[in-house]
Amino acid sequence: MARLATRSMLKSLALILIISALLAGTAGCTGASGKTGVTVFTGGTGGTYFPLGSKYAELLNQFSDNIDASAATSGASVTNCKAIGTGECQAALVQNDVSYYARKGINMFDAPIPELQGIACWYPETIQFVVKADSNIMSLEDMAGKNVAVGAPGSGAAVGCEQVLQAAGVWDSITRFDLNFGEAASALKLGQVDVGFLVAGAPTSAIEELAVSSEVRIVEVPDNILTALGAAGYPFYVRQILPAGTYGMTTDVSTVAVQAMLCVSSELSDDVVYEMTKILFEHLDELRTVHTKANDITLNSALDGMSLIVHPGAIAYFEEAGVTVSADLKG
Q1: Residue 19: what pLDDT?
Q2: How far apart are CA 210 and CA 185, in angstroms?
Q3: For burial by CB atoms within 10 Å, which of 19, 75, 241, 293 has the most?
Q4: pLDDT, tens digit (0-9, with 9 covering 90-100), for 286-306
């Protein structure tokens, strides 16, 4: 009897695995309903990607008769780029610097991901070097010899921190701590590190929470560093100004930013991606109800900082809407 029960259980497990494999294979394909499955990878539930990506999937379902969309939490940019390559998802929110590395097959990517293509850049994700308000660190150069929390190992943030501090000439002289910003905030309060680093849309709730118990400020990233980053082959950085009042600071602070962007799989048809792009820009008001960062999404700025070849379906929409797509973005 035990042997029969075991055989029955194995047959049931095999059936479950077969069904799961079949279901996984339908994403991005036309199902029995005639709709194309589109899974949108977002980020953690506490971040910005999750509410925006979830609402976008909802809008795709609401306004398309051809798309069956769903949103999923994920490990954000690096995970999302890799998931596009493996077919685990067909659309994702990522940082444009990370998508650049994925396209090239460098840094945290062992090989290029040719399936990765762009739809639009959404909003700035700000480079933020955080220090206590009474710190004697007034510039990037002042970080020489200091303890700096550079980001989690292998993360896009850690790579960005290295690029900026290399451009400032201090990367090799800092003592590096591989901490995410939650860990860095605690270390900063305890005096274990002098600087915490993160890349996120500003104002960032994690810094606002830190500022409640410890006055903080953001260290400036000046024009010469932005120029040096471009010359070093990092075209995705853009200028950003944090206005006075951010985190309680009394003056504007110049820094730089990468961009959050929506990318898709090249395996999706032109018609589907055209519709995805059209729904995005025709329903921005609905997207803006879930997060203020959606206010930064505009048709005119959609290709600013674009680090990928743009999907032909998105190109068709842009050109129809009067937006010029440069030759280098057409592949």
Answers
A1: 35
A2: 7
A3: 293
A4: 999 999 899 999 999 999 889
- State how beta strands 36-41 and 253-265 pair: unpaired
Helix (H, G, I), strand (E, B) or coil at 31: coil
Q: What is the pTM of this model?
A: 0.79
Look up residue 218 and give its two tokens: 């953001």
Q: Give the C-alpha separation, 105 to 161, whole Å.
A: 19
pLDDT tens digits for 166-175? Answer: 999 999 999 9
State how far the Cα of 53 lies from the Cα of 44, in Å rounded to an integer: 11
Domain coordinates in residue numbering, the chain: 2-122+261-329, 125-258
Architecture of the domain delimited by 2-122+261-329:
3-Layer(aba) Sandwich (3.40)
Q: What is the mean pLDDT of residues 316-327?
A: 97
pLDDT at 157 over 90: no
Contact 200, 125 (CB under 8 A): yes
Buried b (16+ CB within 10 A) or exposed e, 220-259: bbeeebbebbeeeebebbbebebeeebbebeeebebbbbb
Q: Kind and range of the H or E element at 239?
A: strand 238-242
Buried b (16+ CB within 10 A) or exposed e, 134-154: ebebeebebbbebbbbbbbee
30, pLDDT greater than 80: no
> In CATH terms, are 2-122+261-329 and 125-258 the same topology?
yes
